[in-house]
Write a structure and sequence with these properties.
- The complex is a heterodimer of chains A (288) and B (161).
- With 288 residues, chain A is α+β, with helices and mostly antiparallel strands.
- In chain A, 39% of the residues lie in helices and 10% in strands.
- The radius of gyration of chain A is 21 Å and the shape is globular.
- The N and C termini of chain A lie far apart (50 Å).
- With 161 residues, chain B is mainly α.
- Chain B has a single domain, classed as Cytochrome c-like domain (Cytochrome Bc1 Complex, Chain D, domain 2), CATH 1.10.760.10.
- Chain B is 32% helix and 0% strand.
- In chain B, helix 2 packs across helix 5 and helix 4 packs across helix 5.
- The longest helix of chain B has 17 residues.
- The chains are: A alpha+beta (288), B mainly alpha (161).
- At the A-B interface, helix 1, strand 7 and helix 11 of A face loops of B.
Chain lengths: 288, 161
């Protein structure tokens, strides 16, 4: 009795080895996101960065994996519900607060000049050797230069500011540094990306590298790229920060997650950003 | 009864409960897998019920197999996943012993499989307390209990082409 089944199992395993159950499915089309009738065009695919060593052939925007209604919302800045928060971020930018009597604008003046490119190259190692996200730079200005209180990483005021700052890089390719001082952080993030966390023992790579294009029930898996962040998420009816997204994905593996704003998430943010090097910053994207 | 005595008694009960599961159930740490990952003996005394198994298969809170697998006959499930292979005909391809092994701990049949181990309680990286995001303490309750594994196995065994 057991012998034929054993053979069947061996045959199945041999077959699994030759043809692993990894079914990355390239999107049907890689049309660009055409915004405001052609004023802005964002590419949705790019060659995979070299450091991925062939793990992916091409990198894709999460936009390609969303349903047509959600996609359409991102093609017009009036329809994009995230843009309202960019406007609120502008109010925040000009708001004087703290003992020093200053606003962001007091030092940085025109956001469209001073913040251009920041989102595309962050997280990065600061002058003291620490890895900083955009949120860290914002809070450093607030506490040391404005003498105001730090903003909550995941609070609305911070998300509005990061949305405003992100918009100033819209269309610029993601280009975070991974060598030199950044390398140890990048290695740490990479290790996390491939760690199978929690009782479900799932790594980021299981879903977003091995199975993008596949469906987990009603969820169409993307490559989990971060060039669209902060995203306006229809499910939450609000902006979602990168660390909050990471927290949700790790929690869904029935794991103890890491705190938003932790060093671990900064490292993961750098590594995931580097997987998207070459994809344009989308400013504020719309996802479901 | 002094406080520490009550505590000790309670701790002893807990220890007993985890050391001696319900009569005639094989605890996760005691399951004997053979060299291809199959489990010869049923995990519970009561034979698996395929109808219960069919429910557990599609239930988000328990098996949630449907998140990753599809079965053509399951027109009741609105969305079916395609991470794993279609289970049509799985009852022809695998013996009951092998199905039991796959459902209990698929990684012993398919090394490195993405399929979660349903009857395993320890050895995790950052184990959580269900979906709270908070830390959990090993041994965690297994994703499915012994009877639920038997029920699901009985159901999958009915899938013949």
């Amino acid at each position: 009795m057991t012998i034929p089944f054993r053979r069947a199992a061996l045959a199945a395993m041999a077959c699994a080895l030759a043809l692993p159950a990894l079914a990355e499915t390239a999107p049907e089309s890689t049309d660009p996101i055409v915004i405001n009738g052609g004023e802005v065009e964002l590419q949705t695919a790019a060659p995979a960065p070299e450091h991925l060593d062939g793990a992916l052939d091409e990198i894709y925007s999460g936009w390609l994996f969303r349903d047509p209604d959600t996609q359409t919302m991102q093609t017009d800045d009036f329809e994009n519900p995230g843009m309202i928060f960019v406007d609120q971020g502008m109010d925040e930018w000009n708001m004087v607060e703290g003992e020093a009597g200053k606003s962001c604008a007091s030092c940085h003046e025109d956001v469209s000049e001073s913040m251009k490119g920041v989102r595309a190259t962050t997280p990065k190692v600061n002058k003291d050797g620490a890895l900083w996200s955009v949120e860290d730079y914002v809070n450093d200005c607030r506490t040391s230069r404005m003498q105001a209180e730090a903003l909550d990483w995941n609070g609305d005021r911070m998300k509005n500011l990061t949305a405003l700052i992100s918009m100033q890089s819209r269309g610029m390719p993601m280009d975070v540094a991974i060598d030199g001082a950044a390398q140890p952080f990048w290695e740490q993030g990479k290790e996390m990306y491939y760690t199978r966390y929690g009782q479900l023992e799932l790594a980021c790579s299981n879903c977003h590298e091995d199975h993008y294009g596949d469906w987990i029930r009603a969820d169409h898996l993307s490559q989990g790229q971060t060039n669209g962040f902060p995203v306006y998420r229809l499910k939450d009816a609000g902006l979602v920060s990168q660390h909050n997204r990471f927290r949700g994905c790790i929690r869904d593996t029935r794991a103890e997650t890491f705190p938003i704003g932790s060093d671990e998430f900064r490292a993961l943010e750098l590594y995931v950003a580097s997987r998207g090097n070459g994809l344009p910053v989308e400013g504020v994207s719309v996802r479901h | 009864m002094p406080r520490h005595a009550a505590f000790t008694a309670a701790a002893a009960l807990v220890a007993m409960a985890s050391a001696m599961p319900l009569a005639a159930e094989t605890a996760p740490q005691d399951v004997a897998y053979d060299d291809i990952g199959a489990i010869a003996e049923p995990l519970s005394e009561t034979a698996g019920n395929p109808e219960e198994g069919a429910k557990i298969y599609a239930d988000k809170g328990t098996g949630n197999c449907v998140a990753c697998h599809a079965i053509s006959a399951r027109t009741d499930a609105e969305f079916q996943g395609n991470i794993g292979p279609s289970l049509d005909g799985a009852g022809d391809r695998w013996s009951v012993e092998q199905l039991r092994g796959i459902v209990a701990d698929a990684k012993r049949t398919f090394p490195e499989s993405m399929m979660p181990s349903m009857y395993k309680t320890a050895g995790y990286v950052r184990p959580g307390d269900a979906f709270t995001g908070k830390a959990g303490t090993e041994p965690l309750p297994p994703l499915l209990n012994a009877q639920q594994i038997e029920d699901v196995v009985a159901y999958i065994a009915t899938l013949k082409e």
